[in-house]
Amino acid sequence: MGEFLSVERRGKIAILTMIKPESMNAIGTHADCDDIVDTLRALGEDRSVSAIILTGSGKAFSAGGNLKSMQDRKGIGVLDQPDSTRANYRRGVQAVIRALMDCEIPMIAAVNGHAVGLGCDLACTCDIRIAAESAKFACSFIKVGIVPGDGGAWLLQRVLGYPRAAELFLTGDRFDAQTAKDYGLVTEVVPDAELLDRAVAIAERIVCNPPRALRLTKRLLREAQHSRMSDIVEDGGRLRQGLLLRSAHHEQATDADLGAVDALGLETVIDLRGDDEREMHPCRRSDNFSARVLFAGGVTAGLAPHLQAAGGAIDVETARARMIDTYAGMPYRSALVATLRLYLAALAEYDAPSLVHCVAGKDRTGFAVAIVHRLVGVHEDDLMHDYLLTNTAGKIEERIAQGAAHIRARYGAEIKDEAVRALMSVNPAYLDAALATVRRDHGDIPSYAEAVLNFTPAMREALIDKLVV
User: Which of 25, 211, 231, 304 has the most CB atoms around its CB within 10 Å?
Assistant: First the structure.
């Protein structure tokens, strides 16, 4: 792997060791973050791995973020501007926490020493935590004048409850391994020399079980933390085919395209564009078109997300960063929110095919479809797979060429081809940014839907009844 983690295999067990003892295994660079994310992705794809142990080398588990890099306004921490800081956190430490939380392999934290700040949060992402007698813990962000922007404020209270998490974050107090056990942060405290052997012994009790059942059980345990019991005990259903459809807008649809749309038997078309976009790009309809078209009032300044992100002569990295920032604000775009309310209400009311679209059919449409999928129980891996079909389904090269023409007409020919492709395709980091905003503010997608989209439990039951078999 990279320079931050080493990987040791013991049969079905993978031991991940943070190998920067000179900095107490502090995470200081995006390369460190990428190493963790890439390692977890590779292990997740390896079906021969049934348990992971995460530990540190030297005297620390992890001292968290590298304070020197933060003080120099470099690396993974605070930068000079709020926007760049948010993007820096999303690309770095938040990506690490998401990767750990999304890992479906059972994980054991063997806390061998100091677990401070981000280091404590790394341990909290693991399913089982044991500590050496010498281990020390602290949620000490407050001591250096920063907030737990890595996701720790969400994590710790789910492990310890709100009052204890609030006490630890607001005081920044340090506490020892036995106190951690008393709090419920770790389940065992063992002599330092026995720590790894004890973690391996627990892992061996895990890996003797069927591997697929292990991953599914962990998935259920995680989802049960923010789901109703009825959601968890439902037998795994599947979506009915031919009811949930999506596309780009139909301004340039051919007669053959219109005939294909008519053949779908649509009851409802949901148009996520703003009033100004509809005026500039009216959709073609056949004489036989009979579906009702739903949209909410509101303007978008004529800018689809990929156009909003495009301004100026930008390179591919800037294009991606701007798309991530644009997606991060998507859950609260007023015209989009208003139309999503109509969309969910229509799905709950009508047992018939519907089609949702924006301009390119990838950004707002991708977010809308992801929300609907999650509300009816589709796993996030599967909704991400569906979102990424944008990059392979349909006439992707034709769409990129058309998008390039629009972007260059608006902003000039200086924009690089690679940047256009980044704007006109989709990327897991884009949708992750929108969903991260949802989780930051509401904890999960169902809570966001209830608070922002006026989605009720009765509507959810209706959706499942109509869309899931």
Answer: 25
- Among 225, 155, 205, CA closest to 185: 155
- Closest to 89 in 3D by CA, of 315, 425, 325, 312: 325
Give the end of a domain, one of 157, 190, 224: 224
* Neighbour count for residue 427 (Cβ, 10 Å): 17
Condensed to tens digits (0 to 9), the pLDDT of residues 423-461 reads 888 899 999 999 999 999 998 899 999 999 999 989 988
pTM of the model: 0.54
293 & 384 share domain: yes
Mind listing the pLDDT tens digit for each residue in 255-314?
998 999 999 999 999 999 988 889 888 999 999 999 999 999 777 644 455 555 555 546
What's phi and psi for 271, nearest 5 deg?
A: -105, 110
Quick one: 298 and 367 in the same domain? yes
CA–CA distance from 346 to each of 103, 293, 355, 366 (Å)? Answer: 35, 11, 11, 18
Residue closest to 333 by CA, chosen among 438, 205, 189:
438
Same domain for 344 and 455? yes
